[in-house]
Each structure stands twice: as C-alpha cells, then as structure tokens.
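Saturday, quiet lab. Running sequence design on the structure tokens for the scaffold JK sent over.
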C-alpha cells in the first residue's frame, strides 16, 4: 500500500497458528514488503535491537513460539477450538488458527515480562507489524482495543520500583497504569480477566511542564499522587495509552527500575522460558473460550447492554456479539455521553481484533463522521455498505463487538448510552440511517483506509 509515494511498513497477516512469530527480512523481501529500512526510534521501539530492547524481545518471543513444546501446545489447542461452538461457525473456523497463533505470542510476551526482579516494559497485545527487518505476528486477544497502546512489566509485591516517563507532543486521551494480581487468563473467570489491585491514571498524576513524570510503586502507603501501592499478590502492571487522534497523539516514553527488594532468583534460560510459554498458552487459550461463552455467547446476538464502570479507572464499557447474513447489517447508535473518547470495535468470534491498522474494524470519536453531535451511528457488516462509519469485519458474519468511553463526566446517565441496535438487509440500509449520514464510494473508502494506515504507522514512530 502506498501513500504519497511512500511504502507503508504495515502488514496484515496471520496464517497458521504453527508459524513463526517473526519472519526474517529475507522472507519479507521475497513477498515484496520492505521491513528492513523501517527502524523507528519512538516509544514503542524502546531499546530497539539492543539487549533487553523491544526488538530483541520480539525476536526472543519468536524463538519461544517456534520451540517444539510451544508448537505442540498450539497443535493440541486446534481440536479444542474446533469443538467449541464458535469453531463450528464459518467465521470461527476461518479465524481459529490465527487466534491460537496470537495467543501463543501473547503467552511468550507474558513469559518474558514475568520477572519482577528484572522489570522492563514490553509493547504487547499488538497488531502485526513490520520493522527492523522482521515481520511480527499479532498478539492481540481478549478484545484488544485498537485505540490502546499496551505495555506491560512484572511487579513483585515485596519490591519497590520507580517508573520514569515523558509525554512528547500531544498526549493520549488517557494513560492508565493498572496493577493485577495474576496474569490475565490464568485464574478464575472474571470480567477483567484477573484481579485488579489498584492503579493510576494521567488525570490523577502530577506531570511536570515538560511532560516528564516519576511514579513510585511498592508496598508503602502513598506519599503523594504519583504512587501505586502494591500488595503481596501483585504480579503484573499494564499501561494503556488511549489514542483518539492517531495522527497526532503519542504514547509516553517509559522506563522502570527496581530500587529495592529480595535477592533475585537465577534468570531462566531460553528453554525454561519456552516451557513457561507453553504452560501459559495451555491456560490462557481455554480460559478465553470459557470467558467468551460465559459473558457473550449465552446471550442473544445483536444486542448491547448498558455500559458498566471498569475498575482501575478504565472508564465505561459494554459489549455483545453480532451474527448476520452476508447481505445484512447491524446499525448501532451510541450516545457519546459528553466523554473525551468513544471507541467502537468488532472482533473475530474468539475476541481478536480484526485488521485495524489498514481497515475500519474500529472507529473512535475522532474518526467517525459527522465528528460532532450527541450520538454516533455505526454500521457492522461483512460487505462494504457505502457508509463512512463502517465497522469492517473483513468478511466475517459473526463475532464480538465492544464499546468504550473515557472521560465521561461524573453523574452521566448511562442507561441510554446505547440508543438503538437494528438488524437490516443491506438493500434497505438507508431507511435505517439518520439524517446527516456520510456515504462513501470506492475511491473515498480507499482514501480512508490509506489515511488510517499512515496514521497507524505514525504511532510506531513517535
């Protein structure tokens, strides 16, 4: 894909669950994608190819996924997914292998960020990307949010840490740091995937005029606003940067240092990390099948309930599932609730976000048209409905959907947040759309997708 004569270093690929998580530059060159020259030095590539840097971790994660024990665990999951009710649907069968592959890479990322004595942030739960001479498969799962940049690090509840960061240029709508008592997907099924022990948001933080900040993490009581108090159960800290304007907003640079704590255990070797990856994969993948069947598939399709408030100051959220014919659409009108951010997305039946760097499988309050008004109306369909606010399922006729709000004023009436949800034949779609709906032709859709791809690539460079 080209925009202004520039080859975008974005890729949309998934393939079998049993493929490597990183493909070398030579293979990338053979299929015409130039990953070699795209070497950003922004916050997400922190440390680059140096030991402990993002790129080095991605290459190690690839080797873990390629390990025979992890591959065997992935193969064993194929019949488990096929026997799930969603595995017997056309959309579930079409995406089964890529969902397992994403979860395998996510398990490797957890294995690499599990040592609280040697903490470091890793960009995780991300879309497939192409940089530093390699193509990296996606690791999103659990309804990963396209508007969020996820970074994670291990936290030991008996240690003390200092996190340093700096916002450069326009800041995200919100930056949140949430402390968990276990790796999501490894314990009992609960709405947030793991126990939430506490957190901190950029609204609560003290930030210097130059955008810099320092946060302490440890068992001591808070001595100021920039502190997260831990308990003995603390295991994982996940940072989410919510971006509404992909073309300007930047995730902050982040680093973490352990300043006090018990003597560290010996560092695990690569084989031990692979063994841990397989162990995590065997736990996480079935967990999210059970999660989806508990919270989504036991309820009727094409309905969305009123939002709930999420712990850890993560705003409001609601979700549901869609099930349509190829010639149908789901029309959803949502109240913006006067919040700073509204985001709506679709996923495959397993909860993996669809291709969002290059297609409109998600739209937020800065991306919808019209951009103003109390409400926004979205159209979910497998085929292009000719509407700007199309939530593109990439041909799937069933899957999950999620709506999130950030920065909603206190006391907002959320009972009417979902104004309407209607199934309609595509041929009758215009009868169900509000006045002021923005329609698109093929040329305009292509321009929308190209601009989106360029904006997403910019997220990787800042």
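Result came back. Writing it out in full:
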């Amino acid at each position: 894909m080209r925009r202004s004569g520039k080859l975008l270093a974005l890729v949309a690929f998934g393939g079998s669950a049993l493929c490597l998580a990183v493909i070398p530059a030579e293979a990338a060159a053979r299929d015409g994608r130039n990953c070699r020259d795209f070497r950003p030095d922004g916050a997400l590539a922190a440390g680059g190819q140096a030991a402990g840097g993002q790129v080095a971790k991605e290459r190690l994660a690839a080797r873990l996924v390629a390990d025979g024990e992890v591959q065997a665990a992935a193969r064993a999951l194929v019949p488990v997914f096929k026997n799930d009710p969603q595995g017997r649907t056309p959309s579930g069968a079409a995406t089964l292998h890529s969902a397992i592959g994403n979860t395998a890479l996510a398990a490797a990322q957890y294995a690499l960020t599990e040592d609280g004595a040697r903490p470091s942030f890793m960009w995780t739960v991300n879309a497939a990307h192409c940089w530093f001479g390699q193509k990296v498969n996606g690791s999103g799962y659990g309804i990963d949010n396209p508007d969020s940049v996820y970074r994670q690090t291990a936290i030991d509840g008996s240690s003390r840490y200092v996190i340093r960061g700096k916002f450069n240029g326009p800041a995200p709508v919100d930056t949140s740091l949430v402390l968990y008592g276990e790796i999501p997907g490894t314990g009992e099924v609960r709405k947030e995937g793991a126990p939430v022990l506490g957190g901190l948001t950029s609204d609560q933080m003290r930030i210097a005029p130059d955008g810099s900040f320092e946060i302490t993490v440890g068992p001591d009581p808070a001595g100021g606003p920039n502190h997260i108090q831990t308990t003995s159960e603390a295991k994982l800290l996940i940072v989410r940067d919510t971006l509404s304007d992909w073309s300007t907003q930047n995730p902050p640079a982040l680093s973490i240092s352990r300043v006090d704590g018990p003597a560290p255990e010996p560092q695990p070797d690569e084989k031990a990390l692979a063994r841990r990856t397989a162990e995590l994969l065997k736990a996480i993948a079935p967990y999210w099948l059970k999660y989806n069947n508990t919270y989504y598939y036991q309820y009727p399709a094409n309905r969305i309930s009123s939002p709930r408030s999420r712990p850890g100051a993560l705003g409001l959220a609601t979700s549901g599932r869609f099930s349509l014919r190829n010639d149908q659409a789901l029309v959803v009108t949502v109240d913006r609730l006067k919040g700073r951010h509204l985001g709506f997305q679709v996923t495959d039946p397993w909860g993996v976000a669809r291709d969002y760097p290059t297609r409109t499988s998600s739209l937020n309050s800065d991306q919808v048209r019209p951009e103003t008004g109390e409400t926004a109306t979205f159209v979910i369909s497998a085929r292009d409905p000719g509407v700007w606010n199309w939530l593109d399922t990439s041909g799937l006729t069933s899957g999950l959907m999620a709506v999130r709000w950030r920065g909603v004023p206190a006391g907002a009436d959320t009972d009417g947040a979902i104004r309407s949800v209607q199934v309609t034949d595509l041929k009758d779609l215009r009868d169900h759309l509000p006045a002021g709906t923005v329609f698109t032709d093929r040329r305009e859709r292509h321009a929308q997708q190209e601009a989106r791809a360029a904006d997403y690539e910019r997220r990787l460079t800042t």
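Notes for JK: The first strand starts at residue 2 and ends at 3. Helices lie at 25-30, 54-66, 68-83, 90-112, 270-295, 442-461. Ask whether to fix the surface positions before the next round.
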